[in-house]
Amino acid sequence: MLRFTPFSHTLTATGLVLGLAATSTLTVTVTPAAAVPATVSTTAESLAAQDLVVGADGDGAVFGIARDQWGVLVPPTVVWPVQGGSVSDGFGHREAPTEGASTDHQGVDFAARHGEPVRTAATGVVSSVVSEDRGGCGVNIAIDHVVRGQNVTTVYCHLAAGSVRVAPGQSVVVGDTIAAVGNTGTSTGAHLHFEVRPNGGAAIDPLSWLGALAA
Predict the structure, then answer these.
(1) What is the tens place of the pLDDT at every residue in 38-60?
(2) Beta-carbon contacts of residue 99 (< 8 Å; ≥ 6 apart)
């Protein structure tokens, strides 16, 4: 017969040897094995954030890749210049909305609240900044990019006075806030006039360009 008690086990054996009854008692003490951790915990400190600057799509454009404790974050090639802004005026021929406005609209207008952040649509270099309201496009910024091997200039108009955050020659990364929506220049209300000019030349419909490339 075997009888066990936790951690201090008593072993009792009873048997018959050559017709003689013999009983012996053996006490065995069992020491539990050292506990083994069921999980391995990794802290955020042991996985410090890392940054890497690389070329995009082999076209020479430079952007950043960020790595946090969970994975690698790769920015998109193109983003919409205003988040959540609805289109208030399209590209091409139109009736002039106010005196002095063009009937051949060279961009697209995004209706947005005054002060709403304006983002650079792609990684590039700021080519010009008009920080004073001189009518027309008002306070505006132009940025040169290389997007999938093509040189493209984007233009951001009617920006809020005093909101410009960049200077000519400055490098910007896709999605960077460069200014705020305003109502400067020839404008009927707060909005962003956005232009896309391949190779710095004639404007094309920004909605087609954004629709094909933007995240």
Answers:
(1) 443 444 444 454 544 444 444 44
(2) none
